[in-house]
Design a protein that fits this description.
Structural class of chain A: mainly beta
Radius of gyration of chain B: 27 Å
Oligomer: heterodimer
Mean pLDDT of chain A: 86
Helix content of chain B: under 10%
Low-confidence stretches of chain A: 1-5, 7-25
Shape of chain A: rod-shaped
Distance between the termini of chain A: 48 Å
CATH architecture of chain B: Sandwich
Number of helices of chain B: 1
Number of domains of chain A: 1
Strand content of chain A: 35-45%
Largest sheet of chain B: 6 strands, antiparallel
Number of domains of chain B: 1
Structural class of chain B: mainly beta
Strand content of chain B: 35-45%
Helix content of chain A: under 10%
Number of strands of chain A: 15
Radius of gyration of chain A: 26 Å
Low-confidence stretches of chain B: 1-5, 7-20
Shape of chain B: elongated
């Protein structure tokens, strides 16, 4: 008997623009009667308009990654960690995470489509209640402590905050997020599927 | 009376046909040395070179060209030609700053020139960067096109700053 769990991940990219504009005249100077050392000065001003932006990527750029865990029959619910079999732009269960922005502290929030019930099964065994696996049974580790994923939950809303660059309002982080199934509960034989959305927001 | 006018008129006309004599012209009151510098278009005030970074290109290393182009004209004159060396320097020590206090150094700004009389280069962020030396008495001008290197992601904002060009001669 095998238990299949599928997770789908979204990346959301947000951006904003702020623009100003310039003026134009020149400056000149002359030193007309310098018997000894003499000098003349003129200035030019520079303006750089940098708009605000926020970029966020989890997994593949053009599609939603489908991370699949196949639980061996002999290990169902025995708390042995199950690695993903497929899904992920880096390797099975491993997704690229990139985030960049320049408007201050970014917050990443997790939500899902499970209606608060968890990772839903198909319900083919005529259960009284919807069979589901809690999202807390999915772990996500990062190889960079400056960009960690929020812990998954059935209700959603957990957050994480990528580390800002050098105390400025700039964030530019990249990591690999590895998803595993903790397999702590014996669940009904079924295929459980859910979709997690990570949303990045700035002040 | 009429006869006297006729004599005078005849004398004036005859003087027109006399041979020319050598003439020495003396003009006094010229200044000893003279320096002139212009940065930007004709008129008073300071030209502003503006770089607008597209939202999708912030910090991606693709240079942003500023507008407008800037005319830089320097003139150094002294009484004896080639007797003195004029030096054009730039002071870019103070970085560009936003209202939030974030800064972009002038080392991110470089320029190309219309013909290289004043060589292309990049600001070095110092107050004594030599851009050009030349012997008097000459006038040199170039049109400079400025570029922002755009290699770093910086906080959003409008960054402003000034560079002072100084033409000097000992």
């Amino acid at each position: 008997m095998h238990t299949f769990i599928k997770l789908l991940f979204n990346a959301i990219t947000l951006a904003g623009i702020m623009v100003l504009s310039p003026m134009a005249m020149g400056e000149s100077d002359q030193d007309n009667a310098c018997a000894g050392s003499c000098s003349a000065q003129a200035r030019v001003a520079f303006t750089i308009n940098v708009p605000g932006f926020l970029r966020f990527q989890v997994g593949s750029l053009a599609s939603i990654d489908d991370v699949t865990f196949n639980v061996p029959a002999n290990n169902v619910g025995d708390a042995s960690v199950v690695m993903a079999n497929i899904g992920g732009d880096v390797a099975a269960g491993i997704l690229t995470a990139k985030i960049a922005g320049n408007v201050g502290q970014i917050t990443i929030t997790e939500t899902n489509n499970g209606g608060g019930e968890g990772i839903l099964g198909t319900g083919t065994m005529m259960q009284v209640t919807q069979n589901a696996i809690p999202y807390t049974d999915i772990s996500c580790s990062s190889n960079d402590s400056d960009l960690v994923a929020p812990s998954l939950s059935d209700s959603g809303g957990n957050t994480s905050t990528p580390t800002l660059q050098g105390g400025s309002g700039v964030t530019q982080r990249s990591a690999e997020w590895t998803f595993t199934y903790l397999n702590t509960t014996v669940v009904e034989a079924d295929t459980y599927s859910g979709q997690v959305t990570y949303t990045a927001t700035d002040p | 009376m009429k006869g006297r006018y006729q004599i005078f008129l005849t004398a004036v006309l005859l003087s027109c046909f006399l041979p020319a004599h050598a003439v020495t012209i003396v003009v006094s009151g010229l200044p000893n040395d003279q320096l002139r510098i212009r940065v930007g278009s004709t008129g008073s005030g300071i030209n502003v070179v503006t770089f607008n970074v597209p939202v999708g290109q912030i910090g991606n290393g693709v240079p942003i060209t500023g507008t407008p182009q800037i005319l830089v004209r320097v003139t150094a004159r002294s009484a004896v030609a080639n007797s003195k060396t004029a030096t054009l320097t730039a002071n870019s020590l103070t970085p560009m700053m936003s209202a939030g206090g974030d800064t972009i150094p002038f080392t991110t700004i470089n320029w190309t020139t219309s013909d290289g009389d004043i060589p292309a280069g990049a600001f070095d962020g110092s107050n004594t960067q030599t851009l050009l030396t030349f012997q008097n008495s000459r006038s040199i001008e170039n049109t400079h096109t400025f570029h922002y290197s755009n290699v770093n992601v910086v906080p959003t904002g409008t960054y402003t700053g000034r560079v002072t060009y100084t033409l000097s001669m000992p």
